[in-house]
Amino acid sequence: MSTQKTIVVIGGTGEIGKAVALRFAANGWRVIVPARDLGKPSAQELMANPSITIILADVSKLNGAQHLFQLLKNDDITIRVVFQAAGTFLWDDGFPGPTKNAEEVARLLFSANVETKEHVVEALREYYADTLGSIRMDLVSSHAAQFGPEHPFRNGPFCEEGYVAAMARVSAYGAQLKAEGIFAETIVHEPGLVASDMARTAFPPERAGDIDWAAVDTPEEYAEKLFPNTFFI
Ligand SMILES: NC(=O)c1ccc[n+]([C@@H]2O[C@H](COP(=O)([O-])OP(=O)(O)OC[C@H]3O[C@@H](n4cnc5c(N)ncnc54)[C@H](OP(=O)(O)O)[C@@H]3O)[C@@H](O)[C@H]2O)c1
Fold this sequence. Notes:
Layout: E1 6-10, H1 15-26, E2 30-35, H2 41-47, E3 52-56, H3 62-74, E4 81-84, H4 102-127, E5 136-140, H5 152-155, H6 161-180, E6 185-189, H7 197-202, H8 205-208, H9 219-226
Parallel strand pairs: 1-2, 1-4, 2-3, 4-5, 5-6
Helix pairs in contact: 1-9, 3-4, 4-6
The chain binds NADP nicotinamide-adenine-dinucleotide phosphate.
């Protein structure tokens, strides 16, 4: 039986998730990444790494998450860490996405940021019920989860109420899982900006002021902060 440790990275085709996936692969772990589109360049890049297995699965749907964990269970894979970084950001006016409708924005944000995480946990409970207590669960929320009502991004010319609500729900969900003690550990991360393309596109100067992007952690730097070298000893 293989003693190689396994991490499942949800949102691994995105920049934060990909940086985490590559960091674990470089440190000898087996890495599983579900992808919605195998043709996406990041999926292709991950596929070229012999330590990383890409599985076609869309965790925005419960049956996508179920498909993923059923396959892993069938292959008798023991999971040590599930890192969840699927999600996105939109302002309430829809920028930088195509919709202008605030209700639709809120729905998209909830689906991408919250439902993906709930589906993964639900599918794990179904297929990994016997070993949940040995799995570490990492949830990427956002510092926006803590923005009070007077925060400029809730009260200024451009508001992100939909994102704040979604990320507050992610952080609350993490607290709930922690309180229930389902997993070995449940860790909620609430980063500020991380210099991914997604963040750079969503936070132009006319909305977010002058951001010194050179001083913002890259996804790789952020991944190293979350999982420093000492984690892998
Ligand atoms: N970057 C930041 O500054 C920052 C700060 C705080 C919190 N966060 C949070 O961290 C997470 C990742 O950010 P990132 O910068 O790495 O973004 P990213 O590069 O755009 O990656 C997003 C990832 O989430 C997946 N995803 C997006 N919408 C989805 C949906 N509806 N269903 C399933 N998967 C979906 C994407 O899958 P595809 O590849 O299939 O599209 C991709 O794997 C987001 O939740 C974001 O809100 C980011």
